[in-house]
Each structure stands twice: as C-alpha cells, then as structure tokens.
Amino acid sequence: MKAQRIIKNEKHIDVFVYCILIIWGAAIIFPLLYVLMTSFATEREYLTRGFFIWPKEWTLDAYLYLLGNNTFSQSFMNAVTITVVGTAISISVTTLMAYGLSKKWLKGRTLINFMVVFTMLFSGGLIPTYLVIKEFQLIDTFWSLWLPGAVTPFYLIVMRSFFSSIPHELEESARVDGCGEWRTFFNIMLPLSKASIATFVLFYMVGYWNTYFSALIYLNDSSMWPLQVFLRQILVLNQSMDDSAMLMEQVISYTPGARMAAIVVSALPMMIIYPFLQKHFNKGMLLGSLKG
Amino acid sequence: MRASASKPIVANSRRTTSSTMAHYMKRAFPIYLMVLPGLLSIILFKYLPMFGIAISFQQYSPFRGVWGSKWVGLENFVRLFTEQQFATLLKNTLILNLIDICFYFPAPIIFALILNEVRIKWFKSSLQTIVYLPHFVSMIVVVGITNILFASEFGGINEWLASVGLPRYEGLTDPDHFRWIWLLQNIWKEVGWSAIIYLAALASIDPTLYEAAKIDGASRLKQIWHITLPSLAQVVLILFILRLGSFIDIGFEHIFLLQNPLNLVVSDVFDTYIYRVGVQQGEFSYTTAVGLFKSVVGLVLVLAANAIAKRSGREGVY
Questions:
Q1: Mind telling me how many Å the CA of B53 is from chain A's nearest CA?
Q2: Count of CA atoms in the C-beta half-sphere (13 A) of A42
Q3: Three-point CA angle A252, A256, A262, nearest 5°
Q4: Across the interface, do B129 and A278 touch by the CB < 8 Å criterion?
Q5: Least-confidence region, from A102-106, A117-121, B14-18
Q6: Which of A159, A192, B104, B217 is an S-S bond match for A98, by CB 3.0 to 4.6 Å?
Q7: Which domains does chain B have, with CATH numbers?
Q8: Per-residue b/e over B236-264, b at no fewer than 16 CB within 10 Å?
C-alpha cells in the first residue's frame, strides 16, 4: 500500500497539504506570538524599532504596571469570581439535570426535553430577558450572569446522551445493593463521567471567562466589570460606538505594552488549561454531536 | 428498568395502581429534585421572557409595568416595517449571512479534508493544538489584536509592510472593508475548532473502503470525492440546518465590537439595532417587537430547512 502512495502524481497532493497547513498554522501563531513578545519589550523599543518579534531588551514593566493598576486587578478578580462560581453552578446544575433526564422511565421527561430544545429555537429576546432580570433585582449582581447561564442547552443534550450510553445494569446492580439515587449518582455515575464533565467544565469556564456582553448590560457598576469589559475599554473602544471623552482618556493612559500584557493575562489561563483536556473533548464532542 | 416492570400492574385494581404510583414517586422524587434547579433556570430566564413578549403589543412604561401599560396592537410592528432603517437591517443581515455561508461555513470542512490527508501523526496533532488555540481567546482579544497589528502608527504588520516598501493598510475603519474583516476574524478564530466535528466524522469512516479503492487504482482525489465527501454529507446537512437557525441573529457580540458610526450603513443588524434603540434609548416595546420578528423568522427558517431535509429522505435534526 505504502509504495502506491508515493506514485509521482500523488506527491503534489502532499506538498499542497503541508504547505497550506504550515501557512495556516503560522497565521494563527504569529499574532499571538507577536503580542506575547512585545508585552516584554520596553516602550522605547516598541515605539522606535518598527516591526520586531524578538525584543532586544526584556522587561516586566508592563506586567508590573498592570499589577499596580487598581482597575485592572479589580476586573481580574471579578473575572475569577464570575468564572469559578459560575462554572461550579453551571456544571452542577447541568450534570444533575442531564443525569435526571437520561432516565427513560421518568414521567414528564419528554416535555422537559422539548422545553430545553425549544429554547434553542426561539427566545424571548434581549429586552424581555433584561426586564425579567431587572424584575428579580439581579442588576448589578453577579447572579445576573450565573442564574440565566446555569444551563447551556447544547451541553445538556450532549451530557444527557452520554449518561444514556452508560449500561443500565450498572445502575440496576447499585440499586440491588441498596444505593439510593443520590448515592448511585455520586458514587457510580460521577466517577464514570469524569472525562465528559472535565470537558464541559472547560467549556463553561471559557464561556464565563470570555463573556462581556451580559456583563456590559447587567452590570452598570464599573467596579464589578470583569476583565473582558476592561479589555474592551483599552483595546476596542477607541473606535467603538459609545465612546465619551472620559473613556477616551482611559484608553490613552495605557501604554502599548500594558495593552499587550493585558491581552496575555486574559488569554493565558484558558490556553494553559485546554491542552490537558484536549484528548477528552475530541471524544466528548463526537459522542454528543453526532447523535444530535 | 421501568417502574412498571419491577412491579406488574393488575388492571382495574386501584390499590395496586396507587401503590405503584407511590413506588414510582419514591424512586422518582430524588430524580425530579436533580432536574429541578436547571428546569427552574430555564423557566425563569428563558420562558418568562417569552411571556414578556406581550409588551411588544403595548406602549410599555416601566412605571406602569406589563399589566398597567397601554395596549397598542400591531403599532410597533407597523413602525418596524415602515422604518427607513428596516431595509438596511434586512440587507446587512442577508449579506453577512451570505458571506458567512459561502466562505465561513465550508472553511472547516475544507480544513478537515486537508488535515485528514496528513499521515505524519505528530504534525497532525500539534497542528490541531495550534488551530484550536484561538477558540479559547475572546472576541475582544481578536478584535484588539487586529487593531494593534494594523494600527496606522506602530502597528506591527503596518511597520513591517512599510519596512519592505509596501503601502500601509489603513482599512480597519473603512466601511467597505468591514464585512471582510469580520469574516476573516471569524475564520481565524473558529475554523480549527469547528473542524473537530468533521474530523470526528472522518475518523469514523471504515478504512476498508479506502483499501478497496486503492486496489481498484483510485487516485487520492478520487478517494476524497467518492468516499470521504459522501460520508460527510449527513454531518454537513445537520450543521447547515443548525446554521440556518442562527441566520437572523448573526454573531452579534462580534459585530458590536467592530461597529462604529462610520460603518453603521453596512454593520447595523437587528441585534445591534435592538441594543442601541432598546437598551441605550429605552424603547422597550418597539425593540421587543423587533426581537419577536427576528425570533419568528429564525424559527421558521430552521423548521423549513428541517422539513426539506426530511422530505428529501435524510435525517433531520429536530
């Protein structure tokens, strides 16, 4: 078989494939690398040297500046709180619900499943949702992000089909041994679904960590803003819709290095975590998504 | 497994039925308790707002509430359809979707097909790790990095272009470039990640098919055409139906970041319009009507696509 693949007219396909992929990989890596490297450059070098990817003089000034900046550290801590608590809530609620709905004998299961799918097809819209959250007095609390985002329907459906795929005999034998439903769930089902849960922990974390729009709408108090809203202020707002003179001043007060460092700090946590989980989500995505 | 199976029901015996019921409840109660928190979240924050749609038929005033506000029938919808902006919103939504479906939708399929031809394992897996990276970065960072790289002063790429004697790129705020910048940022961020599902489908193809094709002397391109592509068809169809579901609410958070007063002509879509007029100017009733119009069109599109898929003898999604 191998010999056949090295036939002359087949080789150009390999050349084409590797060329395309190397170019694409470089296009992904270059901007990220550029930001990472220039975050360690001195301001003088950045402003005078033109284009470079390897600083001559390395410095941590930008990071030290961010560390001493109250707005930044506040927004960083807010993002950590939102992400940690939000992920804990979401994964618990979603896992429990998915496990419950995987029980085929449960009455009302079809109705609840339909209710979940329908939210993917139709929504009340931005303004009614805002009014509901306001009515519950969740404005200016992190609950406005945690409660409405507790269940992502797609993740729920994938997890449900995962639980359905676990052999019923396992559960049955636990019941014969006198395990209650809660104990069956915690002692038997959870250990079996570690990989799947880890995947969705990552997905929820990324979701909470990168969220900005809900925060922008539901959190008026700027001391509650998460990192992404802060980043929007210093990276994007200078050409955005609602810039006021005051915000412009804020934008100007950050050096290029500080902006690069802020990007690095915001992007790094998720990028560090994900390669560890990569082998899991390839499998997890396959399982759920193909079944629909 | 079923409760009824563990205890046979004798017909017409009320006592047995009710004890079966008690038996069922005893077993089901903890399960209902597990489902409850998620169900509550969905009811309160997804279904309650659907009732809030009522205010689109009102002249809603926050002080009077839903019950006290004046009913105005279809006035808000009439306003939407006669508003000058409506044509712009519809046009922008259509064009952005068209661009997205023509270029962004096939991109991960092509990427997966190319990656699938790689036989060197370490190359394949490290490339996968790299192309998944941007998915974990926020859209703000993507837009921010673009702004940094193409800044007219000190922007990395522009400095490089200038140093090799090429003209600087100054098109970031140019309305004519908005759509393509939007598309390229999307592709850069998500193509690798979106390819996962296709790669999974490719991995599940029976390798004996390729062996047989090779023995018959089929070239690699022929193998792709006759074996690989047909086995992707079902996944592509499913994702296409799902894609139509988001036809009308197209990547709002991203567009919002790229929007500026200059490019509003090409970048204003229903969601950004709702945000501007609803949240910022406080016209709750009118923008709820806009939202309802949007949701209904979205629902109709998905159901239609699904029905067509089913009628053509394939498996639908819903």
A1: 6
A2: 7
A3: 100
A4: yes
A5: B14-18
A6: A159
A7: 3-68 (no CATH), 81-311 (1.10.3720.10)
A8: bbbbebbbbbbbbbbbbbbbbbbbbeebb
Residue with tokens 């052999």: A167
A58 pairs with which residues across the strands? A41
The pLDDT tens digits for B106-164 are 999 999 999 998 988 899 989 988 999 999 999 999 999 998 888 877 788 888 888 88
A260 touches chain B (CB under 8 A): yes
**Is the CB of A132 less than 8 angstroms away from the CB of B44?**
yes
